[in-house]
Every structure is written in C-alpha cells, then in structure tokens.
Amino acid sequence: MDLLNAVGQMGAGDVVDLGCGNGVMGDALRARAGAARDVVGVDGSPAMLEKARGIKGYSVLQQGDINDWHPRRAPGLLFSNAALHWVGGHEQLMPKLVSMLGKGGTLAIQMPHQNKAPSHRVWLSLAEELHPGRIEKMGTPGVMAPVKYEELLGPLGQFRMWETDYYQRLVAEKGSHPVRRFTESTYARPILDALDADEKADLITRYEDVMHAAYPVRADGSVLFPFRRMFFTLTV
Q: Per the structure, how many domains does the chain have?
C-alpha cells in the first residue's frame, strides 16, 4: 500500500500487477484503477493464480514468466510488489518494462533490500564457507545498488526512489530462532533446497548461532526485526 499510495500520475491504459502472487493487491489496484480500466494480474505460479482467482479486483489473470511477458496493450500502470528481486537481468528488464508503458504511464516497483543485513548475508557467507563454489548456482534473490537503478532509469522519465525499514515482531516455536524461521522459506529457500539433509541441518545450526548474536531473542521469545525495502516509481 505504501507503494501504491506513492503513485501519482497514471496513463490511460490497463493496470498490471506484475508478479501478483495470491492477489493480495487486487482489490486495492481495482479501487485505484476505477471501473473503466482492466486490472491484469500476471504470475508464473499456477498455484498462486488459483488463489488470485478469488479476488474480484482482477479483470484478467495471466500465467507467464516475467522475463518473457508482454502486455496486450500499453499499460497506464505497471505495478510490481516484492517480485522482481527473483528475476535476474535488471539492466535489461527494467528499461524493457518502461518501454511497455503508454504515454503518461508509471512503473512502480518494491523489492526487499535486505541482502547486506545479517539475516540474509549470513546464509550466503556460511553456505560459501561450508560448500565453496556451490553458492553461485543456488539462485538467491537480489537487487542492484540503488545508484545503478538511478543511473539506468533516471534518464527515462520522472524518477523517484526511496527505502523504508519496517520493524516486525517475529516469534517462532521453541528451539528455533525467529529470524531463521522468517527467512528460510523465502530468501534462503534456494540455498536449502540445494543441500542434502545433513548439510541443511548443519547450515541451520550454524546460522542460528549467529542470529542469536545479531538479533537477540527477548524473554518472551520474540525478536524485533528490521527489514528494509527499496521503492521506486518512474513516470514517462
């Protein structure tokens, strides 16, 4: 919602939710789009699209790889929330998305920018220490440095970029560090999927040891966890 609220001008075309997932933003996008525009949800996961079918806000749902997807007509808003960090080749992808917009259209992007924080960096550093040379094949998500997006997209239109730290109270079952439970099914999933059971158990044990120092668990078993997200909008 912070990303959508930051969108000012939109062109006359469709509103596209790129990487719509289970459709959590469908109704909000419909409210912003009004009745005259189509709201198109795009995702690569059939399971996520099946969940999104229950959201009334979408006019159309399309299954497709974001790298290969192309709109039927020029969008007025290309909106992507927490999806494009899973897609590589941003140097080519971002300008391509901008080129799809109709006159006055806006590209609005939010991606996690947490990779340098201990919660994410330690997964990579430990995996590389324990399994040298395998980390590059594990497919972890990532984003470029902010200056790279500004240099790439700034010349293409009215560009605005910012970051926000969101503080979350995390809890986990007894014996598990909350940050491990929070990250293992998202950021760390490609790393853990590449390991056998013994390798995975060893990595998790070592990771939790570091997390207890980086994010101390309070008496009630919770951690106050800062999570940074990068935002940018570009209007052509």
A: 2
How many angstroms separate the CA atoms of 80 and 27, rounded?
Answer: 15
Which helix (H) or strand (E) segment is 66 a member of?
A: none
Residues facing 15 on adjacent strands:
39, 77
**Is the pLDDT score of 211 beyond 80?**
yes
Q: Two tokens at 59? A: 């006019």
As a whole number of angstroms, the distance between CA 21 and CA 191 comes to 22
Q: Does residue 156 fall inside a structural domain?
A: no
Total Cβ atoms within 10 A of residue 187: 20
* 130: in domain: yes
CB atoms closer than 10 angstroms to residue 146: 14
What tokens were used for 8?
Answer: 């000012």
pTM over 0.70: yes
In terms of residue numbers, what domain contains 28? Answer: 1-112
Residue 27 near residue 56 (C-beta atoms within 8 A):
yes
Residue 57 and residue 108 in one domain: yes
Please answer whether residues 127 and 207 qualify as being in contact, where contact means their C-beta atoms are separated by less than 8 angstroms. Answer: no
Residue 36 banded pLDDT, cuts 50, 70, 90: confident
